[in-house]
Amino acid sequence: MRWRNNWLGLPYGDQGLLIHRRFYSRLGGYKALPLMEDVEIVRRIGMARFALFDVRAVTSPARYQQAGYLVRIVRNFICLSLFFLRLPPRWIAKLYG
Known about the structure:
Radius of gyration: 14 Å
Strand content: under 5%
Order of helices and strands: HHHHHH
Distance between the termini: 20 Å
Shape: globular
């Protein structure tokens, strides 16, 4: 995750996006997508506007534990790739499970 954030500028929403209310409003908020809404808003914000904090964000590892870490990482990469290829998020959501 650190590599993806540092090199690709793609933090996910569960990693803690801190967005000022006025800036969030100017962006138009999150789009109503079934999946990848966090990636979509991060792309609109742009990597140049990000400041990465070296703090710990605690989230649930349940999906990784259930599917297996490697399977979940590969699935996330495939979903992200399909999103960048502009496949509809509703299709990607079916794969994401």
